[in-house]
Each structure stands twice: as C-alpha cells, then as structure tokens.
C-alpha cells in the first residue's frame, strides 16, 4: 500500500492532491492550442463559413463538456486540475494551513460516495473529515487514523478514573473540545442557490437544455424560451422541497438540556452540547418520561431503565447497571461496547 495509508473501515481509497497552476490545467492549455490551431487552419485555407462556424462550435461544446465532467466526476476533476502528493513535508504543511491540499476519500461499495475535502492542520495535527468522521495523521506511523473516543480501554481504567480523577480540568476541557468538538449532530442547511446550481448542472438537465436548443435551429426560439423558463421554475420548486425536508429533519434533533458534570473536582451544571469524552456526569430521573440520554456513556454506578426501541425495534424496556463492583477476572479485559458490556452502556438518544 502506498502513501497515504489509513486505518478505518469507512475508507476504501485515499489520496492527497495539490492544485496545479493555470497553464498546467488540462482544460486550459490544450484548448488554447486547439482554438489557435483552428484559427490558423481557417485563415490559411479556403474553408466555407459554415464549416468555420461548425468547427468553432464543436470546440466550444467540447470545452464546455470538459468543465461539466469535472462537476459530474470526481476522477475527472482530479485528473484535470490536480497533482497527486506522495508525501507530506514542511512545505506541504504550510500549504495545508492555507487550505490548498485536498483529500480524495473513497468509501467501500454501497456505503456512500467519494468526497473531495480540504486537509486541515491545528496544533500541528493534520486531519480531515469524511462522512462525519475525523481522521488524524500519525507522524510516527505515517497512517491516517480514525479519531475515536476512549471506549476500548481495560475496565479497571474506567473504575480507577472515576475513583481518583477529579474530572476534566479547564485545560483538559479546552484540549478535548478542540480535538473532538461539541456534542452536537450537525445537519447543515445548504443555501438555495447552491442547491439550485446543483440541479441545473445535473446531466439530465443539461441533456434537456441541449435537446430544446435544437428547436432554435428551426427558428422555434419561442418554444425554446418557454420550455426553458418552465424547466427553471420546476427545478426551483424541487430545490424548495429539498430545503423544506432538510429543515424538518433538523427540527427532529433532540433539544439540548442542562446536565450535571464533575469537572475540576466539583459538580457543575453545563449544557448537554458541552459534554466531552472523559466527562463524569450524573443522570437522574426527569420530570417527564421522555427524558433522552444526551450521549453514549458507561454506567459507573447505579442503574437505569431505558427504552431502546429506536435502536432495536423492541418496545420492552431494558435494565442497565453499573460496572462496579468489578470482578477480578474482568479487571484487565477491554471494554466491549457492542457485545458483552452492552448492559453497562447507555446509548445517546434512548
């Protein structure tokens, strides 16, 4: 496996790219040569005006298709205007901080589509986001590794952490916040014109426009204009519908609530949006039966009755209990969230 290498099941292919200068782009210099060449041919040879115009139209259409193919195909976009990186050096880090280095991430089959995102650097940590997951570059191993919370440590680690630690202090909160972000599910609401542009540049719409352009050749420009206006209005209604659906989806998110967290050796009330990996929190019975767990968490002590029907489809409430007291035979065993230790885990949203 060549550079870059990665760890994570959500990625099947990964490559880094730097944009090339304008004259090196495949949609610039080759077409400059073609346009100049056709102009020379038309000036030095006796060619009818019809063929001169026809040749120019063919070149313009071909040039336009190259631009559209970059929008339709990520592979074409990378081929036309980018150069592949084979390593990351100090010079590259300067360009990363300027947002010039791009990452092409390809998922396994039937698990979404490839993305072309920007490589970022914070506190000398190089990272990028793909499918709502963050991947950090490990300088020692040379791998891009998925950023995971500490959910696979030995069980005794969590018990000792709760017993001895005073929770996250201010410095730890700042550091963990910068690395993991807030406890929020981001559902971005795109702008109308961005979605409208996406609709107008889709292959089917471009094909429709090309078809109705043929009417202009028969002097039916009125039909062309009327049909084009109707198509534009229809695509605008489609965009409005998509925005309405996204707004409804955003409205289904759980509302933030106040929760008690143990930080700097004292209990403080914070918003559930501010919860971080490593926080020790206190969950109590709410005034209403539809209290929602704000995040995935391990029960250290006590118990809870939860409804996991949204995850399992079963309407029977489940009993959850803490890991303490911890049997000696399990002290050195790693936490297994999705198997043996599910009875000690509260899942967010349940």
From TrEMBL:
Give the main localization category. membrane
* UniProt key word Chaperone: no
Pinpoint the P-type ATPase A domain residues.
Answer: 256-350
How this chain sits in the membrane, per its record, is: Multi-pass membrane protein
GO terms (BP aspect)? intracellular calcium ion homeostasis
Instruction: For this UniProt record, give its keywords in alphabetical order, as a comma-separated list.
Output: ATP-binding, Magnesium, Membrane, Metal-binding, Nucleotide-binding, Translocase, Transmembrane, Transmembrane helix
Record-annotated membrane-spanning stretches: 20-41, 53-74, 200-217, 223-243
Q: Name one GO molecular function term.
A: ATP binding
Gene Ontology, cellular component aspect: endoplasmic reticulum membrane
Q: What is this protein called?
A: Cation-transporting P-type ATPase N-terminal domain-containing protein
Q: What is the lineage of its organism?
A: Eukaryota, Rhodophyta, Stylonematophyceae, Stylonematales, Stylonemataceae
């Amino acid at each position: 496996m060549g550079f870059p290498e990665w760890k994570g099941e959500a990625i099947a292919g990964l490559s880094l790219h730097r944009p090339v200068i304008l004259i090196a782009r495949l949609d610039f210099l080759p077409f400059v040569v073609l346009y100049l060449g056709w102009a020379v041919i038309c000036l030095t040879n006796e060619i009818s005006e019809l063929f001169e115009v026809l040749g120019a139209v063919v070149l313009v259409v071909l040039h336009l298709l190259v631009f559209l193919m970059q929008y339709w195909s990520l592979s074409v976009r990378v081929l036309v205007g980018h150069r592949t990186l084979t390593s990351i050096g100090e010079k590259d880090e300067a360009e990363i901080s300027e947002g010039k280095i791009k990452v092409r991430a390809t998922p396994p089959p039937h698990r979404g589509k490839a993305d072309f995102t920007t490589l970022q650097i914070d506190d000398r940590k190089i990272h990028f986001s793909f499918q709502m997951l963050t991947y950090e570059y490990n300088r020692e191993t040379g791998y891009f590794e998925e950023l995971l919370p500490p959910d696979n440590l030995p069980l005794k680690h969590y018990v000792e952490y709760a017993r001895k630690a005073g929770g996250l202090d201010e410095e730890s909160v700042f550091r963990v916040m910068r690395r993991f972000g807030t406890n929020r599910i981001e559902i971005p609401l795109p702008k109308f014109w961005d979605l409208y542009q996406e609709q107008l540049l889709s292959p089917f719409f471009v094909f429709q426009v090309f078809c109705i352009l043929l009417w202009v050749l028969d002097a039916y420009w009125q039909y062309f204009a009327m049909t084009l206006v109707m198509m534009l209005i229809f695509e605008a209604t489609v965009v409005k519908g998509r925005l309405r659906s996204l707004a409804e989806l955003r409205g289904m998110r759980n509302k933030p609530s106040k929760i008690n967290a143990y930080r700097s050796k004292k209990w403080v009330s914070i918003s559930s949006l501010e919860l971080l990996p490593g926080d020790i929190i206190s969950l109590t019975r709410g005034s209403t039966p539809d209290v929602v767990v704000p995040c995935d968490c391990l029960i250290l002590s006590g118990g809870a009755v939860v409804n996991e029907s949204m995850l399992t489809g079963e309407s029977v409430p489940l009993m959850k209990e803490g890991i303490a007291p911890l049997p000696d035979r399990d002290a050195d065993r790693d936490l297994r969230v999705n198997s043996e230790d599910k009875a000690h885990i509260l899942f967010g949203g349940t």
